[in-house]
Fold this sequence. Notes:
This protein is an alpha/beta fold and 291 residues long. The protein has helices at 26-45, 57-66, 108-116, 125-139, 143-146, 149-154, 166-172, 179-191, 202-209, 239-248, 265-268, 272-287; strands at residues 50-55, 77-83, 120-121, 177-178, 226-231, 252-258.
Amino acid sequence: MRGNHYSRAHVKYNPDHDEAFWDFSWDDMARDDLPSMIYYILNQTKQTQIGYVGHSQGTMIGFAEFGNLSNLVQNNVSLYVALAPVAHVGHIKSPIKYLSTTSIMKDLELYWHILFGRNEFLPSSEIVTWLATFGCEQIKYDRLICENIFLVLFGPEKKNLNETRVPVYAAHEPAGTSVKNMIHFAQGVQTNTFQAYDYGSPEKNQLHYNQTTPPAYAIRPMKVPTAIFSGGEDWLADPDDVSFILDNIQSLVYQKFIPDYNHVDFIWAMDANQFVYADLLNVMEKYHPPT
Length: 291
């Protein structure tokens, strides 16, 4: 994803010095980055279609891009697999929601800029510690769960996690993004809408979108065959929010609900090969067979 440890190169801007590098949200990833990646893969492999597997934010950009029928890149996607799918986020249980409360709604951008600046989102250990502590006090989970920042932010179920690997995971996550991207996510929590970045005033939105409100993203028009994998202990892709996705997908070809999976279990769980990847490969073989 743009802005993480592995995606900081730019032909013009230096991420360590130039604010312009960080002027992006997942809007830009959906509109620019995802099609560019798909076309690059097709060009390199000489194939006409790919199977796309997204997790978390990778599903947000998939829903945003593939739901717009004017975007021809969807014709090059034979299957879309969404792990821990995210679109509407109005029901999240993660303490991240406390950075998106209605009491700061009118000054959301200012609030985030005061806490984190305007460039890269690198929350200080003090803020993360406060967020975890405050969130645990509100939800009243046990101390062992609260001491593990991954469980606090992504979901409390830990039986699937290899805890000896947590230091390795922590060395790579969080991998970095822009403050603007986090503001965009916070807007979704506040409004429970799946829409483009809100620039904060009718005048600014008119300048960017030629309309006074941010354009909404639609899932229902999406025609790409789609498989959904979701978890019952996921605090970012809450089952209530996932239900909205399922109710609006007309091209659903497979759906699996894993009751004890949290947000990161889809990539880190010790039994993910059994409960996720085996089924994923079966679906992919049907809709995107090897050539």
